[in-house]
Specification:
single chain; 216 residues; mainly alpha; 10 helices; globular
Length: 216
């Protein structure tokens, strides 16, 4: 992974004059957090947190999107854009070949499904039908190679996990959620070089504004 990070850093440095400042800043931030995630390879919690921040650096375009994945349309547009530009199908390879097991485990895990926790607070079972429908749809996406839809569900599950860890909803290095934290960190860390490479290669695309640009 380290040689890949260095290669992306060198490419970013070489192309800096060709990138606008917002895009250069976005990718520089994403790479810095990806390197941090790699540096925490012995700490699953910190690796997952840093990997998610790396993804957030690529995704967040304005303050409205800072609220979870509330802007599902905008979020799905980004995913579609990445998949459309991924001519070598590296995202699909990552989800299907490298991490098929962890992806299936995330899909079938109710504890990373947002409506499950809403139902816990309301003390009802309304989440079950939604979960079954979502799980069946995700497995169909996986088998039918519908990458944007599948990636959207996987990242949505990982966002719930992110909230649990970052907002104090889980114990540091807890054994309770070890598997999903470890799998989530590894999956994100595998996806991030692909995402950054796509954004770097296609710097002429509109990747949105930055909510927190560098102020000189």
């Amino acid at each position: 992974m380290k040689p890949m990070i260095e290669e992306l850093k060198n490419r970013l440095r070489d192309q800096r004059d060709l990138l606008n400042e917002l895009q250069s800043t976005r990718l520089h931030r994403a790479l810095s957090w990806m390197a941090a995630a790699e540096g925490h390879h012995n700490d699953a919690d910190l690796r997952f947190i840093c990997s998610w921040i790396s993804f957030s650096a690529c995704y967040l375009a304005d303050d409205e999107q800072v609220r979870a994945l509330a802007d599902q349309q905008g979020f799905q547009r980004l995913i579609q854009q990445l998949v459309d530009l991924d001519q070598q199908e590296r995202i699909y390879h990552c989800l299907w070949h490298q991490f098929s097991g962890p992806v299936r485990a995330l899909i079938k895990n109710p504890y990373v499904f947002a409506p499950f926790w809403v139902s816990q607070r309301l003390q009802n079972d309304d989440w079950k039908q939604q979960f079954d429908q979502s799980s069946v749809a995700a497995l169909n996406y996986l088998s039918r190679k519908k990458v944007p839809e599948l990636l959207g569900i996987v990242l949505d599950r990982l966002y719930v996990l992110h909230n649990q860890v970052v907002r104090g909803g889980a114990t540091y290095q807890s054994r309770v959620n070890r598997e999903q934290v470890e799998d989530g960190g590894r999956l994100l860390l595998a996806l991030m070089p692909v995402i950054i490479d796509i954004m770097l290669t296609h710097s002429d695309q509109d990747w949105g504004d930055l909510p927190y640009p560098v102020v000189k």
